[in-house]
Amino acid sequence: MFVEAIERVDPFVRPILSIVRLYGNSEIIPACSTMFFVNEEACAITCRHVAEQLMQADDIHRNYVRFLGERRAIQRDARYNQRLAALEERFGLRPGTLIRQRNQFYGSVDQFTAIQYHLHPTQDLAIIQFLGYNRILYRSHAVFLGDSSRIKQGKYLCRLGYPFPEFTNYRYNPTIDDIEWTTEGRTNTPRFPIDGIVTRLRAENGEIVGVEMSTPGLLGQSGGPLFDTDGIIYGMQHATRHLHLGFDIVDREVTVGGRKTRVSNYPFLNVGQCVHVDVIKQFLREKRIRYYET
Fold it and tell me: What pTM was computed for the model?
């Protein structure tokens, strides 16, 4: 059903690859999010929460570097443990706190000198503009739905993104106590589509701003396009809601593997939340960014 549509959409959808390190740990956590390009001028859209994480990466690292500097100054102090606890409190560090995030924009542009971010004031939507590039590495661009009245309950649509990180081109460098990208290992990660039907439209202040889908948006698909069988863009995946179904089972005795056991189950329906195409187009117009529609 969506074979040809995915082939049309894939050339302008790109992963945002991230590696993360938490305080008190040298383990590297790989993660992905998604963006898609709207024109030939290196302008893409993604979720506001994704853009905010990208924007905060340098500040998070600077905070940790300042902490390390002050920690070195107290290492020979007789009250080291007490003063270290005070330092951790002041810098907001505890086990599991993010201290380092590095990002790569695989297959987007050959290079860039800066990135300009535009954050939507009310919706989970952002524009990313790459500056100082020589050539783009993606192909084609999004074509948005012109008549949004076609978005109705039961409409069959698809989303595309990168929920399962499989890139391996990173390492922890004990010499500098930091995580880093490498030239070895797998540099990309597989795309993953998920289909569903439109279940409801979401409104705020009398205006339609969102599209709810019958299936969840997967972690890593945030910022990916919502499209039809022709590859026309209807919106952007940004979140998943968990609707309590009320079919609860509490402390019921069942037989599992030939043995009786007691179980409880509280089922939820996970539905995808997408930013509506009209919201995306309006924001692009406000920022005077070229886009295309049917």
Answer: 0.92
